[in-house]
Amino acid sequence: MQQLFLTLALVIQVLSALAIIGLVLVQHGKGADMGASFGSGASGSLFGATGSANVLSKSTAVAATFFFASTLALAYMGNSRPQAPKGSVLDQAASAALLAPSSPVAASAASAVASGAALIPKQ
Asked: Per the CB 3.0–4.6 Å rule, which of 6, 70, 108, 123 could disulfide with 12?
């Protein structure tokens, strides 16, 4: 289930990043209005307000909101760690080997760990 949310957040982040890039490149800059007022172009004002936000700037804000939300979700999911099993590493190895001894070596190692015998090879 967590893998599904991770994949969904990653897809949302990539799509919103591409949308932000495209929307920013399509938008008309404020510097173009100033240059047009000195030349032959028609501009609303030189230094005044550009008016209310148009569809492109509103959609850029929505895409940025999705981008930041997915970034926070990815950071949260990437930082969460599963609960560590209790006990020592040797206890975990012994219980794993006792549950599924797939080879004679694993079975003998599991029985040696369970009996407390040393696993140092004899020379």
From this structure: 70
- Whether residue 96 sits in one domain with residue 60: no
* pLDDT above 70 as % of the chain: 52
Is residue 29 pLDDT above 60, yes or no?
A: yes
Sign of the Cα pseudo-torsion (33, 39, 44, 48, in order) = positive
- Do 22 and 68 lie in one domain? The reply is yes
End-to-end Cα distance, the chain:
51
Q: Return d(Cα 45, Cα 41) in angstroms, integer.
A: 12
Give the chain's domain count.
2
3 state DSSP class of 5: helix
Residue 122 belongs to a domain: no
DSSP single-letter state for residue 35: H
- Would you list the DSSP string of 56-111? HHHHHHHHHHHHHHHHHHHHHHHH--PPPPSS-HHHHHHHHHHH---SHHHHHHHH
- Following DSSP, what letter does each residue of 79-91 receive, concatenated? H--PPPPSS-HHH
